[in-house]
Amino acid sequence: MNFRKIPTVLTPEEIIEKCFRRVRKVQVVDPDRLYRLRKLNAGKVQAFADTASSTLLKYVRAFPTIEALHPFYRELIDLGVDVDRLKVSLGRIQGIASTVSEIGRGKVKEIMKMRSQEEMMRAQREALGRMVSAVKRARDPLMVLSEAREFMRRLPEIDPKTPTVIIAGYPNVGKSSLTSALSTAKPEISTYPFTTKGVSVGVLEMGGRRVQVVDTPGMLDREPAERNEIERKASSALRNLPGVVLFLVDPTETCGYPIEMQLSLLQKLSEEFPQMRFFVVFTKSDMEEWTLPNVKEVKVDEERIAGWGVVSSTTREGIEELKRALSALLLDEP
Questions:
Q1: CATH number of the domain at 164-331, please?
Q2: Contact residues for 252 (Cβ-Cβ < 8 A; gap 6+)
Q3: CATH 1.20.120.1190: does it fit domain 3-152?
Q4: pLDDT band with cut points at 50, 70 and 90 for residue 40
Q5: Euclidean distance between CA atoms 146 and 139, whole angstroms
């Protein structure tokens, strides 16, 4: 889903100015003076009505129907958008567009029956005034749409059907470094507003196919009951992405967390995400204080563990082996 296609939402003043620019361009050439005056005044009213209503309806059509989106996107949007308020605002804007169109149609019919130039011009001014007032009533809902657009445009463009790797673990265990090391080129990484540290989404090429990598720094490092609302919603969003969880463990404990706490988090996540497979990776193997933990201490159902790996993002030890393992898991390639 590409939310970047949602157009810039103009203010009422900008929409009104856009309409009057169109009004000023209206010209009518006809030898019949009465007919020419009718068409000129009616044309100005119609130009304003068409421009205003089409602009407003463009916004309504550009926003997706939230219920029709994949659960992953619904969870993401709910992080920063009041969905109910957005729906109400879209409804109000659609209603205002309809009101403007009705005003325009009604006045055009009246003007086309008039015989006095003064009467026509008075009707034109009345129609334009009413339509300007209607557009100004869209100020609040347009502001809601503008704020929602800004948030949604920053969301990752993810295909839920594309193979996905979710990188999890405590902070400073090497998640971002591994995300970069897994790719022959620098991954396309952007930060999105899940937490103060953010969540990154990378795109890697693996076996000639696209693989999505979701890096979750600082998001899953607490007990579920202790997470704030944003962290809980982010966890719920990730639950909707099929794939493999690449769980990183720092045996050197230079990340600031004991190995016991890291393995305990692995157990908790495996229980929280029962539908996911976990590939456990021991990082920082290039450091002198590195020792391989006793994997028998990992209290996770063996069927949930898709594999084990040892890597160093600095020396690239184990990177190619890890890529081959992920390729086999995600792309069914040996």
A1: 3.40.50.300
A2: 284, 287, 289, 290
A3: yes
A4: very high
A5: 11
